[in-house]
Specification:
By secondary structure, this protein is of the alpha+beta class. The protein has eight helices and eight strands; from the N terminus they run H-E-H-H-E-E-H-E-H-E-E-E-E-H-H-H. The chain folds into two domains: 50 residues, no CATH class; 110 residues, no CATH class. Helix 5 packs antiparallel against helix 6 and helix 6 runs antiparallel to helix 7.
């Protein structure tokens, strides 16, 4: 079996993306990735991130790419609100929450947040690791997102029943107290 065929199994689960860690776990020497890119079988997307050439694009690919670029974590804040379609947000950079400092800067593409979240605060939506709807709104509000967008997001969470009534009540009380201060 060729190295590319071996990588295709994991690439299919990650929207065509592969990393040196994926290669290593599959028994493919990571040095093979740049060689496959030089032959046109892979596209080099960023340091340590490749995509199978010609893999069909899907909505949300940029979020999967972001998480793999960071080496883990999940989409958060306004970006998570966009994934869940909670409000009319259009973040300039993709927000990522990672459990530890990433060796590189997110530059103009990514905004990195460092936090340890409990598993109940992270979900998967359309194959994307993302903060739960309510957690994304809590984080966005704390980061200074326009209160009108926060209200719009909470209305959508409530209407679509994406959080428990108790959790929503607690957030609304906290949000109202902050707005009054």
């Amino acid at each position: 079996m060729t190295h590319l065929r071996t990588l295709l199994d994991v690439a299919g689960l990650q929207r065509g993306f592969v990393t040196p860690t994926n290669a290593r776990e599959l028994g493919v020497p990571p040095v093979e990735l740049p060689k496959l890119a030089a032959r046109g079988a892979l596209e080099h997307r960023a340091y340590g991130l490749y995509r199978v050439a010609g893999y069909p694009a899907q909505p949300g690919d940029e979020y999967v790419e972001a998480v793999l670029w960071a080496g883990g974590g999940h989409i958060s804040h306004e970006s998570a609100m966009a994934v869940w379609e909670l409000a009319d947000v259009n973040p300039r950079r993709i927000n990522l929450t990672v459990p530890k400092r990433v060796r590189r800067s997110g530059g103009m593409t990514y905004r990195l947040w460092i936090a340890q979240l409990v598993p109940r605060d992270v979900d998967e939506h359309l194959g994307i690791p993302v903060a739960t709807p309510l957690r994304s709104v809590i984080d966005a509000a704390a980061a200074g997102t326009d209160p009108r967008l926060i209200v719009q997001a909470i209305d959508n969470i409530e209407r679509r029943r994406l959080a428990s009534v108790g959790d929503l009540k607690q957030f609304k009380k906290t949000f109202a107290d902050r707005a009054a201060a």
